[in-house]
Specification:
Elements (H helix, E strand, L loop, with lengths): L12 E3 L2 E3 L10 H18 L44 E2 L6 E2 L7 E5 H6 L5 H5 L5 E5 L4 E5 L12 E5 L2 E2 L21 E8 L3 H4 L6 E7 L9 E11 L4 E14 L3 E12 L4 E4 L9 E12 L5 E14 L4 E4 L12 E4 L5 E15 L4 E18 L1 H12 L6 E20 L6 E23 L4 E8 L2 E15 L4 E21 L7 E23 L2 E12 L2 E2 L15 E2 L2 E14 L4 E13 L2 E6 L2 E6 L3 E15 L2 E14 L20 E13 L2 E12 L20 E11 L4 E7 L7 E5 L9 E5 L4 E9 L1
Parallel strand pairs: 8-11, 15-19
Antiparallel strand pairs: 1-2, 3-4, 5-10, 6-7, 8-9, 10-11, 12-13, 12-43, 13-14, 14-16, 16-17, 17-20, 18-42, 20-21, 21-22, 22-23, 23-24, 23-25, 24-26, 25-26, 26-27, 27-28, 28-31, 29-30, 31-32, 32-35, 33-34, 35-36, 36-37, 37-38, 38-39, 39-40, 40-43, 41-42
Helix pairs in contact: 1-5
């Protein structure tokens, strides 16, 4: 078959004269494609029978705002000198509660990752930083990025359980039909101020889809009074079993009028050399290589002391030649084709183009600050998945002849999303503080899928599906905080939201049972709440209790006649909800040279949304309960001016507490992709070379064993992923006119499995296993001006 690399990323594709659509699927993440595998199997069987702002040397190994460690200060609405902020314990301010406040005083477990620090470590993608963040799980095979926190995941989530925000803008689709759960934004790290990781449900302020937590990208703002400045930089690295990676980037800040207006522009080009080899019809080394280009332009205007307007446009495009999945025998747990090798009869290109445009108008009335935030975003994703290993033998067996030699699933996803938020925030440091807002979103998505089998003289369209959908939501929310004394405070929050959804299913082909059209509608109203109690034990320590609820919307789906019962399946699935109980303690010690944060939580998850199967087709059902209990520790220690130490440890016990017959899972089964233990330890040593400041550092990470499915399940089988350690090194020097850093990832070149996709296993196909990046060494140079 011909290579598809050079085709336009979003063009229609032609198979022997027949037009189909590029489509994003990744194994079990395609409900209309994967389900028919089971049906086809039956038919065939029957037929046969801290960065340190200006101090480049003072680089902490990791930034954990929950324990108030070193990092940059969150940008204020009036000033954007974010790249030059000083770094000291307990000065970090975050926007987690929609107001800027010291991190230690926020009554929740909150961590912050500085983008500058991550870049010094050579981190360029979500896989680099989230895979080392204890208590956060990432399923990633290149195209697919699914995030979960605190064990709130079913392995293949129906819709997001972790919200993703860019500043105050919710990003991504909200439903299964837009694939929001599997397309979490992997934003380029250029010109980001920091990344906030909020653990536990954030439903009152951030809405549906944040039931497990929130990932928030905070960007740098234009600076109107700091003069013309910027930087250019680049990095180059080499990966074992792969090739050369490189990144080029530039940022410029242009003041238009002092204290009134400024423009900030950034751009980057990132190339990741693949390390997985492909055999088959079109052999290729490093098939999982990819290129990401992006840019951001932001204009801030402050015409009066009370009014600020910020306009921002962000674009990012990612292209990949193929996935990073390696074919494994599910039973023997051995690679089928050798180390880091896959077999494909069809190329698997992936393309994603993102556009995000926003306007934030802020006015200070004195008694409250008003933010009117409008945003429009587009997400276009296309990809191909090779299912030849399953469909070719099944089809050829059904026809008793080797007619076909390849089968591919293709998808084209396109989501347009408009959001509008009005938020009032009271002044801080008052006995009574409050936040109140209104929120509206309107999403339209198209999801075009096709499954095509081809041979030397025959092409068969097994399935075509067009799945357009809409999602509208209206919400009102508010948080009220009362300070009873200078030490004791309480917060109560409530969000009431209503959503309306529409859906159409236009299907044709043998696996669809002919041509059909099934429209559907759904609507539901949700209420999420929050109660916290905070107490300042001493001037440098706080304790808190937190009760919060989370919610994920239901939705419409096709209704099928169940041949086993003779009844029709529901045309909708219901929301699922959870309640989280959390206790925490945060403190600084030794004149703020040491800090720690401890938390314990208990989460009860009800009416879990799951994929089930009827007549071999994948549908969504509600069933079962789960409970996640855990402990989290984050700490920092600066024993001397030269040493920076930090560490984190999480324990998570997430299990079903009720049988789920639809997927043959039973009470007591562990939730997928969730290690019991995970930990990270960082150490940095600061010194001088002549008069130049320098540092060396190391990070040791541990991820415990995980399940990729459920034990004893034949529809969602479990390929157990062993635990692993990784060691990273780094060093850098500030030459004043340039900053130079070197880094080493995976020093001992461990073959560590990060995730597994078992969608094809029930039909006799391989497990698709994804590995962490092999040994990588590189250098980065940044030149300010």
């Amino acid at each position: 078959m011909t290579s598809q690399k050079d085709r336009h990323p979003f063009s229609r594709r032609t198979h022997h004269g027949r037009t189909t659509f590029p489509l994003q699927t990744s194994g079990r993440y395609a409900p209309f494609i994967v389900g028919p595998v089971v049906s086809l199997t039956v038919l065939c069987a029957h037929a046969q029978t801290t960065p340190p702002g200006t101090d480049q040397a003072a680089t902490p190994a990791q930034v954990n705002a929950a324990s108030a460690p070193k990092s940059v200060t969150a940008p204020s609405s009036r000033s954007a000198k974010t790249t030059n902020s000083a770094t000291t314990l307990n000065t970090f301010e975050v926007t987690a509660n929609r107001r800027r406040e010291p991190a230690r005083e926020v009554p929740m477990q909150l961590n912050v990752l500085s983008s500058q620090e991550l870049q010094r470590k050579g981190a360029t993608s979500m896989q680099d930083y989230l895979s080392k963040e204890p208590g956060v799980s990432l399923v990633s095979s290149g195209p697919v990025n699914q995030i979960s926190m605190r064990g709130i995941t079913t392995g293949s989530d129906i819709s997001p359980t972790v919200g993703v925000y860019v500043d105050d803008i919710p990003f991504g689709g909200s439903t299964i039909w837009s694939r929001g759960a599997q397309l979490a934004l992997d934003m380029g790290l250029l010109d980001l101020n920091h990344i906030e990781i909020l653990r536990g449900p954030q439903g009152t302020l951030y809405g549906a889809g944040a039931m497990g937590g929130l990932l928030k990208y905070v960007t740098n703002e234009p600076d109107s009074d700091g003069g013309l400045y910027g930087h250019i930089g680049g990095s180059i690295s080499g990966t074992d079993h792969g090739g050369l990676n490189h990144t080029e980037n530039a940022v410029i800040n242009v003041p238009i009028k002092d204290d009134v207006a400024a423009l900030r522009i950034s751009a980057f080009d990132q190339h990741d050399a693949g390390f997985v080899n492909r055999i088959g019809s079109d052999p290729e080394s490093g098939v999982n290589e990819g290129t990401t280009i992006g840019g951001r332009a932001s204009l801030t205007v402050t015409p009066t002391k009370d009014l600020t307007v910020r306009l921002t446009a962000t674009t990012q495009q990612t292209k990949r030649d193929g996935t990073g999945a390696v074919d494994y025998n599910f039973t023997t747990r051995e690679p089928l084709y050798g180390d880091l090798t896959q077999s494909r009869q069809v190329n698997e290109p992936y393309n994603q183009l993102i556009g995000l445009y926003s306007a934030d108008i802020e006015y200070d009335f004195g008694w409250a600050r008003l933010n009117a935030i409008s945003a429009f975003q587009t997400i276009r994703t296309s990809s191909t998945a090779d299912y030849s290993s399953v469909y070719v033998p099944l089809l050829n067996a059904g026809f008793a002849s080797p007619i076909y030699n390849a089968a591919a699933a293709e998808t084209d996803l396109y989501t347009k999303k408009f959001t509008q938020e009005f938020r009032l925030t009271s002044p801080a440091n008052r006995s009574l503080e409050w936040v109140a807002g209104l929120f509206y979103t309107h999403e339209t998505s198209t999801n075009d899928q096709s499954l095509i089998a081809s041979g030397s003289s025959l092409t068969s369209n097994l399935l075509e599906a067009e799945l357009p959908s809409t999602y509208k939501e209206y919400a009102a929310y508010g948080d009220l905080t009362y300070h009873f004394t200078t030490r004791l405070s309480a917060t109560a929050g409530l969000r009431v939201a209503h959503n309306d959804q529409t859906f159409d299913s236009f299907t044709s082909g043998p696996l669809a049972g002919g041509t059909s059209n099934q429209p559907g509608v759904s609507a539901d109203t949700s209420k999420t709440y929050l109660f916290t109690l905070g107490y300042q034990l001493t001037q440098n320590s706080n304790a808190y209790g937190r009760i919060a609820s989370g919610y994920r919307p239901g939705g419409p789906q096709p209704s099928l006649l169940d041949l086993a019962t003779g009844t029709k399946t529901p045309g909708t699935f219901s929301p699922d909800t959870l309640t989280s109980y959390e206790l925490g303690y945060k403190a600084d010690f030794l004149d703020k040279r040491a800090s720690l944060s401890l938390s314990a939580y208990d989460i009860e998850w009800r009416s879990i949304q799951l994929s089930s199967y009827v007549n071999g087709l994948s549908l969504i059902t509600n069933g079962g309960r789960a409970r996640s209990q855990g402990l989290e520790f984050f700490g920092n220690l600066n024993p001397s001016p030269q040493w920076r130490l930090s560490g984190s440890l999480t324990y998570t016990d997430a299990r079903l507490t009720q049988d789920v017959p639809g997927i043959q899972a039973v009470s007591g089964d562990r939730m997928p992709n969730t290690p019991t233990f995970s930990a990270t330890l960082n150490a940095d040593y600061l010194f001088t070379v002549d008069t130049y400041r320098a540092y060396v550092g190391a990070t040791e990470s541990y991820i415990g064993p995980r399940n990729s499915g459920f034990n004893n399940s034949s529809v969602d089988p479990n390929f157990q992923l062993p635990g692993y350690f990784t060691t990273d090194l780094r060093a850098g020097i500030d030459l004043r006119k340039a900053n130079v850093a070197v880094f080493v990832h995976n020093l001992f070149n461990r073959r560590a499995m990060s995730s597994a996709n078992n969608a094809l296993v029930p039909a006799g196909g391989p497990a698709w296993v994804t590995f962490i990046q092999p040994f990588t060494v590189g250098m980065q140079v940044d030149v300010p001006f």
